[in-house]
């Protein structure tokens, strides 16, 4: 007998529809799983066999073929266990097949029949919604996550024997399963929809805690307002990391569309956990250690998984002590910084991961940390060759992609805190600048100034005559690349938005140029 059960897997960070086809025919007792399964999928046969036996079902002593279609796509994980078990039970006549029609079935089985949670449920359920499937049979521990997708009927399964309403004799139709939400049957019907509770907010560090550093705060404010990349350079202990870690506190919350996309990424990466789950509303802040590999940063593996740049999607990727990272690791950032996505090619497929993040980084001016910032107690002990080797860890093309390169000197102990430079005031200014960018969206097609390109950039950046002359002179005298020219223009647009100016003036261009003072080409400034 033939049975087809709808299932799903995760391909990159998106759901992939999988048809679990089960054929039971006369022959020597054996089970073959085909369709490019990985070891975890092939081992599902033994988990299913033990689960059926321990739940009082019979495992057919016949020839069983399980095909995971499409057969040319490699399958991994344990989410197919429940679908395979349902296919065998329905195909052998122990359960009626009709209840499983138009139902997505996902879940891992333990040897005693318990249904365990699996990662990536959110993109799987979203794929079912896109295909018009409205009912999902899934582990009870995953229902809160799946409930984030609107309009879905979710059936929480704790144990395999609940498929028959807790009765091991006979079979039960889907209606009985659907309405058994109390003492028998399924663990309960869960209506789809957004989580009702608000996401708990952790303690938020404030920019008011940072002593002095008014120019650095202004740079961080500008970076946040236009989503520009930022590099903070200075001796140890001047507040570079403090400034970067307070950056998410002045960024706007994620929109509904952005929140769903980010939550799906974390679901596919298995980082949502279980329990009371809601959409991720706060912009991610990722700070990997400098020993991370290239694969850990951009994603990788035989079946690629999202890396740190994808986990920082719509948020901030912070690289503390940037030159301590391997140069090979840093160079892989070039493509995602330009394309806003990561493309990983494998022999059988090409995977694309979203990577629209804001890069924030910090570094010392030299290995010892005090070059150009000597005091009576601290003197730079580095040779010119050592300093050059240290700075060479960050290549020119990568540095050219960083809009703001800001010096963070040692502040006086009694440095005053400028009014309006705490997190609340800075967030208010960022929101005002963001509204100006959104108002231009129909014309530019870019939600953030850092995303402006081509005609949109020309439409958004109206230069006053003095600003045009200054930018042209800077391009000629400083040897700017075309990328640097465009990034200065985008940065000046953000500065003008913060100043509530419709046109870009010479003062905005001048400030944008001086923010690139750490670029090797601009060091004479």
Low-pLDDT runs: 166-193, 195-201, 518-525
Biggest sheet, strands in spatial order?
Answer: 12-15-18-11-19
Q: What profile does the largest beta sheet have? A: 5 strands, parallel
Using DSSP, what is the number of strands?
A: 19
What share of the residues does DSSP label as strand, in percent? 15-25%
- Number of separate helices: 21
Class derived from helix and strand content: alpha/beta
Shape: elongated
Mean pLDDT: 86
Distance between the termini: 79 Å
Based on CA atoms alone, the radius of gyration comes out at: 28 Å
Helix content: 25-40%
Q: Any overview of this molecule?
A:
By secondary structure, this protein is an alpha/beta fold. It has helices at 39-42, 44-54, 81-91, 121-130, 143-146, 174-179, 214-226, 240-245, 256-268, 294-298, 308-311, 327-331, 334-339, 384-391, 396-400, 423-439, 441-444, 454-460, 465-478, 482-498, 506-514, and strands at 2-11, 14-25, 30-34, 63-69, 103-105, 108-109, 115-116, 135-139, 153-157, 189-191, 230-233, 285-286, 299-300, 305-306, 316-319, 341-345, 350-354, 358-363, 404-407. The strands form six sheets. Strands 12-15-18-11-19 form a five-stranded parallel sheet. It has a four-stranded mixed sheet with strand order 1-2-4-3. A hairpin with a 4-residue loop joins strand 13 (299-300) and strand 14. Helix 7 packs across helix 20 and helix 20 packs across helix 21. The longest helix has 17 residues, at 423-439. It starts with a strand and ends in an 11-residue tail after the last helix.
């Amino acid at each position: 007998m033939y049975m087809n059960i709808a299932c799903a897997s995760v391909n990159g960070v998106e759901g992939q529809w999988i048809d679990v086809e089960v054929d039971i025919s006369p022959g020597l007792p054996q089970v073959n799983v085909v369709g490019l399964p990985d070891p975890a999928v092939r081992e599902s046969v033994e988990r299913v066999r033990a689960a059926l036996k321990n739940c009082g079902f019979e495992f057919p002593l016949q020839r069983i073929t399980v095909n995971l279609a499409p057969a040319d796509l490699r399958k991994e994980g344990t989410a197919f266990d429940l679908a395979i078990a349902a296919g065998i039970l329905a195909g052998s006549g122990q359960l009626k097949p009709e209840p499983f029609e138009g139902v997505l079935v996902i879940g891992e089985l333990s040897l005693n029949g318990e249904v365990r949670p699996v990662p990536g449920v959110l993109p799987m359920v979203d794929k079912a919604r896109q295909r018009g499937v409205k009912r999902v049979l899934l582990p009870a521990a995953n229902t809160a996550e799946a409930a984030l997708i609107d309009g879905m009927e979710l059936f929480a399964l704790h144990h395999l024997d609940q498929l028959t309403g807790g009765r091991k004799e006979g079979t039960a139709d889907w209606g009985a399963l659907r309405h058994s939400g109390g003492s028998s049957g399924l663990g309960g019907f869960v209506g789809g929809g957004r989580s009702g509770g608000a996401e708990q907010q952790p303690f938020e560090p404030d920019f008011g805690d940072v002593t002095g550093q008014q120019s650095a705060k202004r740079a961080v404010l500008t970076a946040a307002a236009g989503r520009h990349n930022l590099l903070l350079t200075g001796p140890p202990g001047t507040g570079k990391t403090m400034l970067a870690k307070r950056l998410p506190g002045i960024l706007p919350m994620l929109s509904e569309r952005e929140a769903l996309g980010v939550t799906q990424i974390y679901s596919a990466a298995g980082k949502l956990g279980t329990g009371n789950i809601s959409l991720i509303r706060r912009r991610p802040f990722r700070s990997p250690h400098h020993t991370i590999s290239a694969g850990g940063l951009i994603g990788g593996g035989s079946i690629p998984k999202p890396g740190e740049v994808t986990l920082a999607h719509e948020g901030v990727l912070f690289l503390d002590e940037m030159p301590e990272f391997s140069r090979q690791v840093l160079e892989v950032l070039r493509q995602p910084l330009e394309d806003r996505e990561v493309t990983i090619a494998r022999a059988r497929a090409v995977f694309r991961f979203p990577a629209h993040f804001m890069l924030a980084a910090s570094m010392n001016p030299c290995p010892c940390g005090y070059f150009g910032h000597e005091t009576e107690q601290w003197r730079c002990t580095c040779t010119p060759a050592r300093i050059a080797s240290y700075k060479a860890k960050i290549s020119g093309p990568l540095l050219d992609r960083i809009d703001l390169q800001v010096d963070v000197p040692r502040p006086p102990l009694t440095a005053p805190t400028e009014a309006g430079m705490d997190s609340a005031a800075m967030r208010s200014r960022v929101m005002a600048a963001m509204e100006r960018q959104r108002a231009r969206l129909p014309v530019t097609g870019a939600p953030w100034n850092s995303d402006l390109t081509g005609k949109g950039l020309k439409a958004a950046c109206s230069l006053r005559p003095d600003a045009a002359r200054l930018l042209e002179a800077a391009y000629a005298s400083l040897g700017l690349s075309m990328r640097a020219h465009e990034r200065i223009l985008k940065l000046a647009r953000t500065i003008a938005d913060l100043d509530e100016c419709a046109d870009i003036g010479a003062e905005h261009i001048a400030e944008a140029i001086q923010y690139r003072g750490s670029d090797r080409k601009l060091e004479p400034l």
